[in-house]
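Researcher: I'd like a structural prediction for the single chain below. Treat it as a standalone chain; there are no partners to consider.
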Amino acid sequence: MRAILGKKLGMTRIFDEAGREIPITLIEAKPNTIVRVRTDAEVKRVQIAAGQKKRLNKAERGQFERLKLKPEKVFEIASSADHQLGEQIKVDWFREGEKINVSAVSKGKGFAGTVKRHGFKLGPKTHGSNNYRQPGSIGSMFPQRVVKGRRMAGHLGSQMVTVKNLKIVKIEPEKSLIMVGGAVPGSRNSWVKLWSNHEA
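Model: Treating it as a single chain, here is the predicted structure.
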């Protein structure tokens, strides 16, 4: 598996040789650093750090001070490649034209009803009906409780979303930029994880 953390800069468009418009998302993926390599049940696990924050807590200082790092984000992947502690991962770990997966926390949209959150149909607007945007029944006499997973009103968005098989349109290593075709979850300047299950 290969992965890198970057920040979503926003969306724009480019044109191919035939003049067709391609919507792209710009992701700035500055060099990530490998901060831990371990073998767990015959699977090599690599811990990767990205970003820079002002201060570390005591546990983080014990791990990162020897590497002179103050990472903002840390994640772990399983990789069969031979990685070294302190090695830097750059955007050239990926290739133009390659299909990757993108994971990020989606935009938070506050409290939403069932119509907006789950696409429930509206009730009748006429004949004195009061059931216009109401959710309706949420259970029966058995099991005398609301079952888990019942679709109801609640917090919309602000959850981890993965979009699969997005194409890398262009890579600019000197600017640490990756241009991914299509839309990517998350707001501007939010952290985005680019990953592929295939080794380089």
